[in-house]
Amino acid sequence: MDPLENKEESDNLTSDQMKPVDLDKEPDAEEPSHSDKEENKESPKSSEGTTIGSTPVQSVPVHETKTQRFDLEIEVFDPIMKDKHHEYPIKGKDDEGTFDSQRRYNEFILLRTTLVTRWPGLYIPELPPKKAFGNKDDEFVLERRYFLNRFCKKISNHPFLFLSEEFKLFLRGSGDYKKCIGGLASKQPNEELLLKYSTAFGVDESQLEKNKELDAVPLQEYNNFLQSMIPNLEKLHKMSMDTKELMKSQNSLYHAFVLEMSKYEKDNILQYAQKNASKLILGNPQNESTLKSFETTADEVAAPFSEIETWVKEELLEVKAYKTTLDGLVALKKQRAALKEKKTSLESNLDKKHQGKGGGLKGMFKKGTKEKDIQNLTAQIPVLTRDIENITGIINLSTNFLLKTFMPEFQNRQLDKYYNSIKVFAQAQATQSQKLAQGWTDFLNDENLKHFQFQLNLKNLQQILQKKK
User: Fold this and answer.
1) From the CB of residue 30, how many other CB atoms can be counted at a distance below 10 Å?
2) Which pLDDT score, from 0 to 100, does residue 237 have?
3) What would the pLDDT profile of 39-94 be if each residue is shown by its tens digit?
4) Three-state DSSP string of the chain
5) Largest distance between two CA atoms of the chain
6) Are 311 and 418 in contact (CB under 8 A)?
7) CA distance 176 to 158
8) Confidence of residue 469 (pLDDT cuts 50, 70, 90)
9) Please, are residues 399 and 122 in contact by the beta-carbon 8 Å criterion?
């Protein structure tokens, strides 16, 4: 299904968002932040590993979990106007049976933000950007419905997301979605998050402990590649829209030109032909069907460029979704770096306490204070160690899932989509060119032009014979 023409502006990233981030080394300690910036069936393929850059990386199989035995269905339908805003009906089936709900576009945005925050480091499909003006135009609304449906179907490809608490509240919760998720904590304990990931992927984190490559995967090269794609795609998007409008204008002008030539024949050339209409070419009644063959509609001319435009939009959404995934891994690594720094500081303080240092004059005469400090530090360090281990497990599970589910097939899938778009574009262009060429060929076969060519050849022959004499 091709969406209608989109007139929204590109969702450009800021210069800060475009700045490369090094995923290959431990980031500086900093508070974590999860940014919300950015066929339909994408079944994970079995693979022994993948290659990023020049480094082969082995991944642990993501086992089928019980959630994958259910038939998951979802469809977003054309919107309904309610109180001056649109609501999109959503119908389908999950492990609890059928569902039928309605959600506004802003609630879809909140859903994605919630998923990105509560499932850090995992692929969450991107949504089309907001549009301040003209967001109730029929064409725009239908196109938005197409991309919202695409978003939901991509979610359904991953049962752990489709059947997650966040998504179920979106589908089955009553009232405003913001109120529905009010009971969900924005930040989950790392131990709880690790258990959630292990359950979702059917992989015990201990299976990944020996795979030291996961924590040193060279994702920087891939992240830079994605970043470089965005300005290229945005430029291509603008050019496809501009060219489409130009082709529409040229088609209209070209058709008007052919009709004007026909009119000129009837108004003027007919006099030279002694009012014999059979002597005309474009205005000849017998060539009326040929003349009509030039009547190509604006939609026919625009169709191949609309195909390219749609492909570019979807490619942009995919690239931005993957960047958000990598941003989530960066945030997890920053969180781990901060905990490691804190643990190192506590261990240093503990050593000083044992050596009788760092307490000052006041601490030297308060034995109870020193012992209490040592006790507190001794208790805090194991807690931090477990937290660091939990975050490392989350990072490993996320990276393993990314490698196993996406990396082996992402390039092939994107290549297939590109090939299909070029195929559709080339076929449409070839059909239009053939139609145009056939029309002019039919005019060349007109008896008047054939007779004219015969007379011209005869005249040339006579001139040649005259020169020989």
Assistant:
1) 13
2) 93
3) 443 333 333 444 433 334 344 444 444 444 568 899 999 999 998 889 999 999 99
4) CCCCCCCCCCCCCCHHHHCCCCCCCCCCCCCCCCCCCCCCCCCCCCCCEEEECCEEEECCCCCCCHHHHCCCEEEECCCEEECCEEEEEEEEEECCEEEEEEECHHHHHHHHHHHHHHCCCCCCCCCCCCCCCCCCCHHHHHHHHHHHHHHHHHHHCCHHHHCCHHHHHHHHCCCCHHHHHHHCCCCCCHHHHHHHHHHHHCCCHHHHCCCHHHHHCCHHHHHHHHHHHHHHHHHHHHHHHHHHHHHHHHHHHHHHHHHHHHHHHHHHHHHHCCCCHHHCCCCCHHHHHHHHCCCCCHHHHHHHHHHHHHHHHHHHHHHHHHHHHHHHHHHHHHHHHHHHHHHHHHHHHHHHHHCCCCCHHHHHCCHHHHHHHHHHHHHHHHHHHHHHHHHHHHHHHHHHHHHHHHHHHHHHHHHHHHHHHHHHHHHHHHHHHHHHHHHHHHHHCCHHHHHHHHHHHHHHHHHHHHHHC
5) 136
6) yes
7) 25
8) low
9) no
The amino acid sitting at 212 is: K
In angstroms, rounded to a whole number, what is the distance separating the alpha carbons of residues 387 and 54? 32
Interatomic CA distance for residues 42 and 413, integer angstroms = 9
CA distances from 244 to 5, 6, 198, 258 (A): 10, 12, 48, 21
Tokens standing for 465? 């014979």
Tell me what pLDDT residue 418 has. 93
In single-letter form, the type of residue at position 346 comes to: L
Structure-block tokens of residue 340: 């490691």
Both tokens of residue 358?
């760092």
Please, which residues have CB within 8 angstroms of residue 43's CB and are 6 or more apart in sequence? 157
Q: How much of the chain exceeds pLDDT 90, in percent?
A: 48
Residues ≥6 apart with Cβ < 8 Å to 69: none
CB 374 within 8 A of CB 353: yes
Decide: 332 and 27 in contact? Cβ < 8 Å. no
Between 398 and 364, residue with greater pLDDT: 398
Structure tokens at 410: 């992402």
CA atoms within 13 Å, Cβ hemisphere of 11: 21
For the beta carbon of residue 129, count every other beta carbon within 10 angstroms.
Answer: 16
Task: Give the 3-state secondary structure of 411-436.
Answer: HHHHHHHHHHHHHHHHHHHHHHHHHH
Share of the chain above pLDDT 70, in %: 78
